[in-house]
Amino acid sequence: MAKARHSRFDCTPGCSVEAAIGLIDGKWKSIILWHLLSGTLRFNELRRHVQNCTPRMLTNQLREMEENGLITRKVYAQVPPKVEYSLSELGRSMEPILRTLKEWGDANIGLYGKPTGHDPREAA
Amino acid sequence: MAKARHSRFDCTPGCSVEAAIGLIDGKWKSIILWHLLSGTLRFNELRRHVQNCTPRMLTNQLREMEENGLITRKVYAQVPPKVEYSLSELGRSMEPILRTLKEWGDANIGLYGKPTGHDPREAA
DNA sequence: GCACATAGTGTCGAAAAGGATACTGTCCGC
DNA sequence: GCGGACAGTATCCTTTTCGACACTATGTGC
Asked: Which residue numbers delimit the HTH hxlR-type domain (chains A, B) (predicted)?
């Protein structure tokens, strides 16, 4: 997901769709982004919010999003380390995407019977 | 991606975002969905549209989306097989998502310097 | 009889993503 | 001096994803 997964920007129309997805895809990114919409958060605050995400994964996702310019990492040279994560302008520009996604999810998942989640192959 | 990857619907707010992403995530799904927005397509038509997607992968993605209720598969009992894929109502309801995603992608990727694609770790 | 088209399936293997667990260093409170 | 909080790292391992390639069956055209 990190690297070349969605890096075919030369593909058929729809590639920008893919490219956009590529940036928010990754098990925790959307949640992280979602929380950051409400404001700046520190590493361990995020950890608590995301709960079952290991620190390794959290760092990982955060770093990728930083590289992609979605978030900003601000380190305070303090004795007990302090690092703040916030959305960059680009990250904030994704708000409509996140919202559209959430609206659709709220409207269609559960109401519809959880498109994912149920998976016939498990029941059968 | 297929199964339990994004199946934490009980998580913190933002889970519906994740759930929605889970349905369009998967290397080819967004492209397929995108093409189907313009109308019904047959298997090999899709193949030609998506180009570098192996038939195995195509079947795979198509099946997952069918299970998720996003697309409809219509088989014609003909001698040279004929199978048509089209968006279901649920699938069509994703149009705003796809469009938002595409708009964002068009506006921010390339213009911004291809957030993915460049990856400092490769150059460094 | 051979190739082509249709719509796939099956097997194999590599790579990536993700998870578990333990560890770093520094300061504070006790 | 012990343990906690801070912000991560390092290492190992499993699962998932994806791609290559060959292969199925049936009918048509040559």
From this structure: 15-113
Residue written as tokens 């911004």?
A: B112
What would the pLDDT profile of A34-83 be if each residue is shown by its tens digit? Answer: 999 999 999 999 999 998 899 999 999 999 999 999 999 999 988 789 99
Q: Is A119 on the interface with B (CB under 8 A)?
A: yes
Q: What is the residue range of B103's domain?
A: 30-112
The model's pLDDT over B31-84, given as tens digits with 9 standing for 90+, comes to 999 999 999 999 999 999 988 899 999 999 999 999 999 999 999 988 788 999
Residues of A in contact with B18 (CB under 8 A): 30-31, 105
Classify residue A84 by burial, with Cβ atoms within 10 Å: 0-12, 13-18, 19+: middle
- Total of domains in chain B: 1
Question: Which residues in B lie closer than 8 A to residue A90 (C-beta atoms)?
Answer: 108, 112, 115
pLDDT tens-place string over residues B4-14: 444 444 445 56
For residues B33 and B62, give the distance between their C-alpha atoms in angstroms, rounded to a whole number: 10
B124 lies in some domain: no
**Nearest-angstrom CA–CA distance, B87 and B41:** 10
- Tell me, yes or no, whether A14 lies in a domain: yes
Cβ separation of A30 and B14 shorter than 8 Å? Answer: yes
Q: Which of A17, A36, A53 to mutate to test the interface with B (most CBs of B within 10 A)?
A: A17
Residue B119 belongs to some domain of the structure: no
pTM check: above 0.70: yes
What does the block give as tokens for A86?
A: 């916030």
CB contact, 8 Å: B122 with chain A? Answer: yes
Give a yes or no: residue A91 inside a domain.
Answer: yes
